[in-house]
Every structure is written in structure tokens, then in C-alpha cells.
Amino acid sequence: MKQVKVLLLMLAVLASCNSHSKKSDGNKKIAIIVSTLNNPWFVFLAETAAKKAKALGYDSKIFDSQNNTALEADHFENVISSEYNAILFNPTDATGSIANVTKAINADIPVFCMDREINSADGATSQILSDNYSGSIEIGKYFVEMLNKKGTYVELLGIVSDNNTWNRSKGFHSIVDNYKGLKMVAQQSADFDRNKALEVMESILQVHPDIDGVFCGNDAMAMGAYQALLSAGKADKVKVFGFDGAQDVIKSIKQGKIVATGMQFPKIIAETAATYADEYFKGKRDFPKKKPIAVELVNKENIDKYTGYGKKQ
């Protein structure tokens, strides 16, 4: 009788373990940690990732780092202690975010970077990134064409600790610097922020009132720069170029306010990251360390093919 009781107890324990295992497998949680929700582009990225995670059968939660690496670190601590199973990550700082990723990886939580990268070849499980350098080369070519190879211009940089800022700038300059008739009279960071770009552009115009063009590292800054030019009565004289493919800039290109932008594809980036997490849960481990997503030039000639954040279906 005693042996029977022991056997029944063991069977009950095994049944409990199997039940817990099945419950765990069916309730994976995905954390979506983004640099900021103060930019519509990142809102779209985060919400698309959450939508794809849900479609794949997983719970998810979006965390806003507010462009603050310390707050980002708090999110990682929370995610790890709350036993999330994967992180879809848009970093605040290419170098400063490495420690957070490393902490998650050491806790056996895979990290898939979206759009922004970290400066570690092996740090993240995979990094899904726009091909910013190549995309800015195309903008540079169009910039040269639209300014007829001569004139003065301003460049508004994004966040200086973000590799996207410099990849876009380097791609642009790899073309524009070959034309001696084009002179950059100011280069200043506006942190990818529309309001800051407005203020920076207003200050630049006080010193350089007769510029011919502005290249902005993202569309939010392009809209801020355009507003400053409009207030100064120069919007019809200065050609503004952005980068992102945001809805308001797509509309502005149609209206002739913004000349061109580089269309990123946040839907592809976000859905790829969520799909990679799903594949990881199912046993896959051989992910590409970096997966580039092509950027396309959008201007008045092809604008009808695009909508905000992508191509028309």
C-alpha cells in the first residue's frame, strides 16, 4: 500500500510538471523596449512589433526608455526579474546599451535589436537594421542634382551616440563632398527631435540666412527645419531633405514642401524581430548577427508608390 501511495505521488508530481511546462510554452512573454515614444516612427515600430507578437500567439508589453540609458537599464532589470522570454530592442545608445543587452543574454533572454544597433558584433542575438549608409548615398545623389551641384547647405544630425546618425551622414557626404561647388556652412545635432530642429535651424539662419539646402538625419528634424524656414520666409527658396518615410513628410513631399526622404521600412524590421523571437522559442539559434533592410529614395517622381512607413499595397 505504501509503495502504491509513493507511486501515485510521483505520478501527480510528473503531471504537475508537465502541466506547468505546457503552460510556460504557451505563455511566452516578449518585451518591446524602444528608445522613445515621442517620435511617431518609433511608436509605429513598437506597435507593429506588438501586433506581430500577438499574431504569433505571445503576450507583449512596450517599454519607453525616453532616450535615457539609465531608464533603459531599469526596463531591462524589470524585464529580467519579470521573466520575459525575449526582448525586441531599440537601443538608446550604441555603446551605452551594450551592458543592458549583455545582462539579458546572460539571463538566457534573447535580444533582437530593431533599427538602432549596439557596438558589439556578438552582443545581441541578432540586429535588424536599415541600410542607412546606402540609403543616404541615394539622397546625396538627389541632393546634388536638386541643387545643381552648387550652393551652401546645412546638415542637422541626430543623436550623436547613435550609429544611425553617422551612417546617414557618412553616406550623404560620400557623394556631396565630391562637388566643390557645394559648401556646408553648419552641421549641428538636433537629437532627431522636431522642436529642437526648429530651434537649431532658427539659430543657424541668423548666421547663415542665404542657404540653399538642408539635409536632416530624420523626418522629424526635416519638419522642424521646414517650419523654421517657413517662419523666416525662406521655405520656397531652401530645399529640405529628410530620412525615415514618416507620414507627415510623405504628405509634405506631395505638397512640394519637402524635396525627398529615405524610406525605411519599420514594419519589416519589427515583424522580422518578432518572427525571430518566435523561431528562437521553437529552437532556432543560427540568426544573422546583422540583417540589413534596404532604404529607398522617395521624391515627387515616385511619391504615389508610397505611404507613411512603407509602400502602398
Give the key terms.
313 residues, 6-stranded parallel β-sheet, 4-stranded parallel β-sheet, disordered N terminus, alpha/beta, 10 helices
Tell me briefly what this model is.
The protein is of the alpha/beta class and 313 residues long.
Number of helices: 10
Between the first and last Cα atoms, what is the distance in angstroms?
Answer: 70 Å
Report mean pLDDT, rounded to a whole number: 93
Percentage beta strand: 15-25%
With strands numbered from the N-terminus, the spatial order across the biggest sheet is 2-1-3-4-5-11
In this structure, how is the largest beta sheet organized? 6 strands, parallel
Shape: elongated
Helix/strand class: alpha/beta
Poorly predicted spans:
1-25
Report the C-alpha radius of gyration, rounded. Answer: 23 Å
The topology string of helices and strands comes to HEHEHEHEEHEHEHEHEHEHEEEE
In total, how many beta strands? 14
The proportion of residues forming helix, as a percent range, comes to 40-55%
Structure description:
The structure is a single chain. This protein has ten helices and 14 strands. It is an alpha/beta fold. The longest helix is centred in the N-terminal third of the chain and has 25 residues, at 2-26. It starts with a helix and ends with a strand.
